[in-house]
Structures are given as structure tokens and as C-alpha cells.
Amino acid sequence: MGKMFGFSWSFTREELFHTCERAFFYEYAAKDEPYHAEAFRLRNLTTPVMMAGTIVDSVIGMSLKALKNGGEVQTDLASKGARIYEKWWKDSTSFGPTYQKGDPIPDKATVLYHHYFSKDDDEAEKQSGAQRVQNCLYNFENSSLWETIQEKAIHPWSEIRVHGDGLFPKSFVTDSGLELWAAYDFYIQEEPSLHILDWKTGARKPNSETKAAKQLSIYTLYGNKALGIDLPQVTVQAIWLQESPEWCPQQIDEKSILAVETETHRQSESVFSRLKQDTFWPKGNKWIYIANEADFPPSPHPNKCKRCKFQTICSEGIKFHEQELEEQNELDEHDPFEEL
Question: Where are the alpha helices (DSSP H) in 238-314?
Fold first, then answer.
């Protein structure tokens, strides 16, 4: 039986739950399972796309923090991001095998899933991630959005989240009683308005825009419930960094916000109903819940399972993992000259 320390909901949790309920269990409720130590390591793995996004977020965050503190405005962000990307990739190559054995690695180290699983680099994938970092940071630095942000630097800002600094916003409670997290990138409070912005390093597509709209509704609730700003004064914007962004935060109508809140509560209840309240944890001021792995079935799919970071502890993932190893061994044993 696994354990979940407290129960709250977020856009990220909902996304993972929809992708694979079993992966959700490994991510949030594997405590006290026999594979707990390995699950903890696997939770920290990332992909080249995710690493690229983290680097973009970090470089912009450091630039904003320097601006906020009255420091010199940083330039050539694309080159800075490219250097960080290359360093993190190189470090991951070294840390992967060490981390797999359970040995300690530096705090805040980034380990790519394929290095952990001792797989070779995909050069096309590596270059794609590097290009994403450079494109997004170049577009940001040379945009009218960045010019506007610099002009508004005199207004109160939130704490900027930088990779690994732990400065995440506190949770808030909706009218329906659901505890929600909203990990926005930053906000500017320009009386009487509050502007919340969120960086997007992926391409703008109908599906991604739909997801972003839901996420922005949750951010609007955060501005209202956590910061006490009237809903009509909260504006939000998804910043699509693969394009040249402009400043255009907009208000989300209350009907859309209510629909998102209702749907989010329904989704969270589908998880909460599978948990059993166990004991109260005074130190964390929250309840500990018991979770049964069998209540979170996997969603097997060849492409999805082969790229899942939990593939070595999931019964379905193990099948695909072993199959991939067999295919690799067959390639290694093949004599390229045998047909000549």
C-alpha cells in the first residue's frame, strides 16, 4: 500500500492523471511501497523537451530577478541558455549511471531519463532541444513583451521562480473546498490590476491552447482567492515563446472560470475517492492517505510506455523496456558485413 501526504490538486497533477493513472500513483503515492526508493529516483528524471523548458524558464527568471532588484538588464539570453543546455546535458551523461545505482548526486542536478536507463543520445533530439532553448530566449529578448515588462518593473512583482529555488506559490482553496496549486511563472501588480504570465516553450496548437486556457483559469482563481484581487481585475496571458510575443494579458469571463473549477473538482474527486484517510501529520499540518496501486490502472501504449520514466517498476512498462533491450541486443549482435 502506498501513501500520499496530504491531498491537493493542480493542473500538472491532472495532466499526469489523464496520461496514465499508474504513473500518477508512482509520482505521488509510492511511499512505503517496496520500490519506493527507485520510484523516488525515477520521479526526478526529465526529458530533453522538459529540460529545455526548465532552462528557458530559469534564464528568463534570472533576468527578471536582476531587473526587479535594480541590476543590469541581461542580454544575449539565447547564448546563455545554449551554454546551460550543453552543461546540463554533459552533467546528465555522468550522473545517469551514478543515480541509477542509488548513489548520491549533486543537489538540483538534472538527469535525463535515457541517461538513467543507459541509452545512447539521440543527436536529433538533443539538437532539437538546444534549438528550442535558443529560439525561445531569442524571441523573448527581442520582443515588445520584454520591452513592456522592463517599463513595468517599478510595480510590485511576485517572487520569481528559478530552477531549484523552491519558491513556489502557496496553495489556495476554491469555493467548492478544493485545495489547488497554481505554479505561475510570475505576476505584476499594477493597481488595481494583477497580470499573471506563463511561459510556453511548445508550439501554439489548438490542443495546447485549450490546455493553456484551462491553466490560465486556475491562475485567475489564484489571483482572486490567494491574493484577494477582484476577478474583473485579474488578467492572464500564455506567452508562446516560439513566436515573437507581445504584451496582451486578458480577463477570463467568470462563466469559463466556473466551468474549469467545476471540472477540476470533479477530476480531483475521482482520485480522492480512491484514497483512505489514515493519520494526521502534525509537522506538515495535513492528513496522510492510504493509496492502493491496483486502484490506479496503467494505460499501456508502445510509444508512451517506452518513454515513461517509470518503465522499470511498472508491469506494463517492463514489457516494453525488455522488448526494447532485446531489439537493441539484436542490433549489437548483427554483423554489418555478413551479407557482403
Answer: 254-272, 302-306
C-alpha grid cell for residue 98? 551514478
* pLDDT of 331: 46
Averaged confidence pLDDT in the chain: 89
| Bridge-based pairing state of the strands 234-240 and 276-281 | unpaired
**How far is 42 from 243, CA to CA, in rounded Å?**
33
User: How far is it, in rounded angstroms, from Cα 80 to Cα 92?
Assistant: 18
Q: What is the DSSP letter of 31?
A: B
pLDDT at 336 over 50: no
What strand order describes the sheet that includes 286-291?
Answer: 2-5, 286-291, 276-281
Quick: pLDDT tens for 162-205.
555 556 667 888 888 889 888 888 899 999 999 999 999 999 99
Our measurement of the distance from residue 270's CA atom to the centroid of its chain's CA atoms, rounded to an integer in Å, reads 22
9 forms beta bridges with 180
Residue 281: strand pairing partners: 286
Q: What band does 337 get if pLDDT is binned at 50, 70 and 90?
A: very low
Q: What are phi and psi of 59, to 5 degrees?
A: -65, -45
242, pLDDT greater than 80? yes
Q: What are phi and psi of 174, to 5 degrees?
A: -80, 175
Crossing angle of helices 144-151/123-141, nearest 10°?
A: 50
Structure confidence at residue 244 (pLDDT): 95
Alpha-carbon span 197 to 140, nearest angstrom:
13
- Give yes or no for a contact between 185 and 63, defined as CB atoms under 8 angstroms apart: no
Looking at residues 53-73, what average pLDDT do you find?
Answer: 89
Q: Please provide the DSSP assignment of 97-117 as one string.
A: HHHHTT----TT--EEHHHHT
SS3 84: helix
Query: CA 57 to CA 133: how far, in whole Å?
Result: 10
Backbone dihedral angles phi then psi of residue 103, each to the nearest 5 degrees: -75, 150
Give the Cα separation of 289 and 5 in Å (integer). Answer: 6
